[in-house]
Automatic annotation (TrEMBL):
EC number: 1.14.11.4
Enzyme category, top tier: oxidoreductase
Location relative to the cell: Endoplasmic reticulum
Main location: endoplasmic reticulum
PROSITE patterns from the UniProt entry: FE2OG_OXY
Swiss-Prot/TrEMBL keywords: Dioxygenase, Endoplasmic reticulum, Glycoprotein, Iron, Metal-binding, Oxidoreductase, Signal, Vitamin C
Reactions performed catalytically: L-lysyl-[collagen] + 2-oxoglutarate + O2 = (5R)-5-hydroxy-L-lysyl-[collagen] + succinate + CO2
Residue ranges of domain Fe2OG dioxygenase in the record: 640-733
Entry's Gene Ontology cellular component terms: endoplasmic reticulum
Keyword Nucleotide-binding annotated: no
Keyword Signal: yes
Signal peptide: 1-18
Protein name (database record): procollagen-lysine 5-dioxygenase
Amino acid sequence: MILYLLYALVLFAQSGLTTQEATDSTSDLDLLIVTVATDETDGYKRFADSLKYFNLDVLVLGMNEEWTGGDVRVTVGGGMKVNLLKKALGKYKDNQNLVLFFTDSYDVVFAAGKDEILGKFKNFNSKLIFSAETTIWPDASLKSQYPEVNVGKRFLCSGGIIGYAPQFWAAINQWDLVDTDDDQLYYTKLYLNEGIRAELNMSLDHTSKLVQNINFARSELELVEQETTSRVKNVKYHTFPSVIHGNGPSKVHLNYFSNYMPDGWHSDTGCRKCEQDLLDLSSLEQEDSYPLVQLSIFIEDTMPFFSEFLQRIEKLSYPKSRIALFIHNNEQTLERVVAQFLLRHRSKFNSVKVVAPHEQVSELEARQMAIERCVAVNCDYQFSVNADVQLTNPDTLNFLITKNKKVIAPLVRRPGKLWSNFWGALNIDGYYARSEDYLAIVDMERRGIWNIPFMNSVYLIKVEVLHQLIDEVGKPFSDGDLDPDMALCSHLRNEGVFIYLSNEYEFGHLVVPDLKVDSEVHPDLWQIKANAKDWEDKYIHPGFWNATLSETKVTQPCPDVYMFPLFTPAMADAIVELMEFHGKWSTGNNEDERLTGGYENVPTIDIHMNQVGYEKQWLHLLATYPLKVVQKVYPGYDSKAHSIMMFVVRYKPSEQPFLRPHHDSSTWTMNVALNTHGQDYEGGGCRFLRYNCSATQIPKGYALIHPGRLTHYHEGLQTTKGTRYIAVSFVDP
């Protein structure tokens, strides 16, 4: 145990202080990074960017050549890498002052520069060093031949190899192998040969000083900031690896780390790559110069606030003439709304294709149809939007295109919830796991562009990716039992296409899917709790919030009677239409079976909220909105906003034109005007007899609150023409 502690202290002294290592004499050495890459994938570009950041020289082998090394994602292979090294490194074989550092490229990010790398290398006192990992691959039967180690990883990983050029050259030329042979097995047999190991002075990087292989080591790693850079620290061995390798299934973890290291998001500067490689749309003078985008809308179920969804689609600032519209509607109840939208706006779009409910096309089939149509019409992008996405930022599409990513999604979330359209990590089964930074991203405490493993609901894809997916997998939205979005993201990850998320701005939000309200009229009224933000936007008067401010004086038409904006015209109309659709108005007689005791002293022609199934929602409304004003204008009174009498009254000359003087059975009463004086009716209003004061011509959607008992004896003034509707609540009886 004492020896282990002493060894740990040595490790900390040697590898925890990278600046001290860099002071070792390395001026006589040159460093050349060597890699194999046959395609400029997103992973390769990230690798190259990290080299550029540290000003490291690189030799890339195999670019634009056909890969003949087997499918190393699922089986053995990679011998082609060794053969490419043999062809290219002969000219360096006698250079004793040259250090060659071979790494993979698609799943590698450099975290340090030349001085640190060479300083660490020299401290090993070895000529050739391989990275190490916890598991043995590909031949577990060789496990017993590995030397035992007291501290660190025991087994060789070929994803990182560093050594002097002569020893490196000798290692790759020990035996012949074909391209489909396994490169890691080749190097393993070299290392396990005691004679060759001694001759070439080989060792393993047991404690990840130089190379950190993430697979089976994720729990050892944490992100730390060092001045202006971010590093991965191995907290188990107290090392700061110079290279991070997402070997095997750990590529999602590498993507997470690369959002920060070496020059990604930083607490001092925020996002440092958000303005890189942008596509400038502002330079396009003509509409027909804009990229052609297929906007694909997927309506798979009844969705609240669907009319508002379509309104926001129409308000997108991207030129409509450069949008080919594809709509898959699987919900018959929304067919009329879609038809009305197209009747008004079809001519604005480049083209329109609608897949209607009667065609019985599944979501998976529809998504496949959409990408095939996108390719067929020569679009440049596919912008996919589900009907549960409210895009409140009209510049969303323009912004996403300017980011110039192959795949990018805007952050949208359910208001007040952690539910969003992305996952920051995956569990072992490929499903949701919460990344360390998920909350910071969702809450927009950290803003930037993030490499993520999963997105849904709304995203933009370049057509080149659609071609790639169709060519490689055929049906990218199909993968076993996975839903279409999970299947798509799985295929993108397997094809090495990065999925990005931007939370640089507010783009919109998600609505909670429909709660199956049994109402044919204005079902959005019932979304007051489940989708409060959209409900408020649609139904609460924008001036209401100003009335709640302490410095705002609320209009007082009569003593202790206050008037303020509460409902939008849409809310007022919806309440009237709901009641008229129900149609079961009371007779206006004293006998009323709806009441306990069956008798109403001052009857009106009305419909109660509980008759239309809106009692709970109205109680929530009272406690959430007008109560704020009540507590302001009647200080010291603690209202519970409880009510058992909530109803809509209808006045008209031929039915019930007025209401005789009375007290309300309430502590405070609220009346809301539901239509417009001078347009829908004449006359009307409320007269408070004690003060000989009348409140008349109350604007539509405005609320009147007043004490109910004792002081505010009042009457309903005569309606002389038309029909007047008011919503009445007796609160705190």
